[in-house]
Design brief:
single chain; 374 residues; alpha+beta; four-stranded antiparallel sheet; V-type proton ATPase subunit C; transport; ATPase_V1-cplx_csu; proton-transporting ATPase activity, rotational mechanism
């Protein structure tokens, strides 16, 4: 599937059908590997010259915005399919692949009445796409919030002993809690274990001798217990901190642990649900944005062709997908389809000509702009 297309309109001197036949013949003869399609645009409401000029000033900016939203949703779909383990498939619009929707474009009269002013159609498309973009931001933020909460929990479960949840490591039998005694949990750097074992009993006056036991060790730290009198706990925390030992707070409460487990399960379910919902929304919204984008492009071709070739509307609009190596040849063919006076008149601004209206590329003696599907 091609991902880069040119939308072009050529001035009709005699008839659109004869120009189309000439173009087909020339492309087939000199650039046979370039796909060529008719881009059928209905007779739209022209309005005044002033309104067309004002509209033309906004077309390029609006196109960039709509194209950007389309790509943003597409990237979101690719990301969601990847993390969900879904085999990526070609996106479709109204049941057909996106490239086919472009190359077989048919104006939707019910959605975009041709008697509506061009400005009304363009503004309506812009408002609709802007609303979809806002919805996307809200949905992505909601999904990211749940993912952040899960990541925080996972860090606590898989991080170092300095930050991870200790409920899966510390058992009730490891702790002593009585009227006078309490067991604290000390996180000791691996390289300081000898220092801990030789000093913990003398950090304060009321530590139970030989009460420290190693419960767990990771790449950075070791987790030790130490039993002492309740009244000495705060002083011991302070002295331990001065020696580079961290005393971890820990609550041995089965109800709290069960609550955390339920919260984790709910977050995982929420993540799966939000991810699935967001993916389905993106599929639908991408189709809506792409449909609006192609109608916008049709309006753009029509408006720029009127400004370029004058009234009454008499032009042939086509879609091409030339390879990079064929671009110069195709440009030459297209220019040859315009009469010599038109070709001479429409040069780039640097060459003293009038240039193009709302052009997003070098000026040509015909209307031309690029559509990037990706």
């Amino acid at each position: 599937m091609a991902t880069r297309y040119w939308v072009v309109s050529l001035p009709v001197q005699k008839s659109a059908s004869s120009l189309w036949s000439r173009l087909q013949e020339s492309i087939s003869k000199h650039s046979f590997d370039t796909p060529l399609y008719r881009f059928n645009i209905p007779n739209l409401r022209v309005g005044t010259l002033d309104s067309l000029l004002a509209l033309s000033d906004d077309l390029l900016k609006s196109n960039s915005f709509i194209e950007g939203v389309s790509h943003k949703i597409r990237r979101q779909i690719e990301d969601l399919e990847k993390v969900s383990g879904i085999l990526s498939s070609s996106l479709s619009v109204d049941g057909v692949p996106v490239d086919s929707y472009l190359t077989r474009f048919v104006w939707d009269e019910a959605k975009f009445p041709t008697m509506s002013p061009l400005r009304e159609i363009v503004d309506g498309i812009h408002v609709q796409v802007a609303k979809i973009e806002d919805d996307l931001k809200v949905r992505v933020a909601e999904s990211n919030n749940v993912r952040s909460q899960l990541n925080a929990i996972n860090r606590k479960q898989t991080g170092s002993l300095a930050v991870r949840d200790l409920s899966g490591i510390v058992k009730p039998r490891d702790l002593i809690t009585s009227e006078h005694l309490v067991t604290l949990l000390a996180v000791v750097p691996k390289y300081s274990q000898k220092d801990w074992l030789s000093s913990y009993e003398t950090l304060t006056s009321y530590v139970v001798p030989r009460s420290s036991k190693k419960l767990h060790e990771d790449n950075e730290y070791a987790l030790y217990t130490v039993t002492l009198f309740h009244r000495d706990a705060d002083n011991f925390r302070s002295k331990a901190r001065e020696r580079g030992f961290q005393i971890r707070d820990f609550e041995n409460n089965s109800e709290t642990q069960e609550t955390r487990k339920q919260e984790l399960e709910k977050l995982m379910q929420d993540q799966d649900s939000l991810r699935s919902s967001l993916l389905q929304w993106c599929y639908t919204s991408y189709g809506e944005v792409f449909t609006s984008w192609m109608h916008f492009c049709a309006v753009r071709v029509f408006a720029e062709s009127i400004l370029r070739y004058g009234l009454p509307p008499s032009f042939l609009s086509v879609v091409l997908a030339p390879s990079v190596k064929s671009e110069k040849k195709v440009r030459s063919i297209l220019e040859g389809m315009c009469d010599s006076s038109n070709s001479t008149f429409w040069k780039t601004d640097d060459e003293g000509g009038m240039g193009g209206f709302g052009s997003d590329a070098d000026a040509h003696p015909y209307v031309s702009f690029t559509i990037n599907l990706i």
